[in-house]
Amino acid sequence: MEVRTRFVVIDDDKLNNKICTATLEKLAANADVKTFIDPLLGFDYIAQQDKATGDDATVVFLDINMPTLNGWEFLARFDLLDEAVKKRVKLYILSSSVDKRDIDRARSDKNVVHYLVKPLTRETIRLITYSQNR
Q: 64-90: buried (b, 16+ CB within 10 Å) or exposed (e) per residue?
């Protein structure tokens, strides 16, 4: 049985969200893509993952620089969630920042799988979906 991957893009840039959605739907079979321009709404959605049905994994692409709740604040809140939620969610930073401090900070966060620089690429999607279906 193939594990279905749910993708969540949390970025205040509507254009980036459209690009991510189009890329994911084109490259990931049966992709379930949700986007949030409001990081608080995105966090609330992620926090409810322990109530989701099935064993579907959730891959989150999180921007760093956003109003109301930046990526670092999001990660601090995420760290307080129940382990059942954190186990189902794979967090990737997806940012336009190439600042070494941002990259190092993301790499040092135990909940971040990897730091990715925008835009989302075909190769990145293939690696992520391959690792999710293993």
A: bebeebbbeebbeebeebeeebbebbb
